[in-house]
Amino acid sequence: LVSLQSREKPRGCAGCNGKIRDRFMLQALDRYWHEDCLKCACCDCHLGRMGSTLYTRANLILCRRDYLR
Fold first, then answer.
1. Domain count, the chain
2. Are 10 and 20 in contact (CB under 8 A)?
3. Is residue 2 over pLDDT 70?
């Protein structure tokens, strides 16, 4: 979770390509995301709400359950 400074230029979301104007944004895999855009590629769960750990396999972002499966 990264705080967006009020004078900082809005960053682009890696999920939807929209500008992130929220007070907070997520940073994962050297990219920035809206909280609702960072989802597991398999089950669509919101990874920002599940903790601070995410997993990757074959260029997919996954929750722990789907990574282990």
1. 1
2. yes
3. no
N- to C-terminal Cα distance for the chain?
27
Q: Which of 19, 37, 17 is nearest to 28 (CA)?
A: 37
Name the residue among 48, 51, 6 with its Cα closest to residue 27. 48
Amino acid identity for residue 63 in this structure: C
Regarding pTM above 0.85, the answer is: no
Q: What is the pLDDT of residues 8-60, one digit of tens each?
A: 678 899 999 999 988 888 888 889 999 899 999 999 999 888 777 889 998 89
CATH code of residue 41: 2.10.110.10
**What is the span of the domain harbouring residue 39?**
26-68
Instruction: For residues 15 and 33, give the distance between their C-alpha atoms in angstroms, rounded to a whole number.
Output: 6
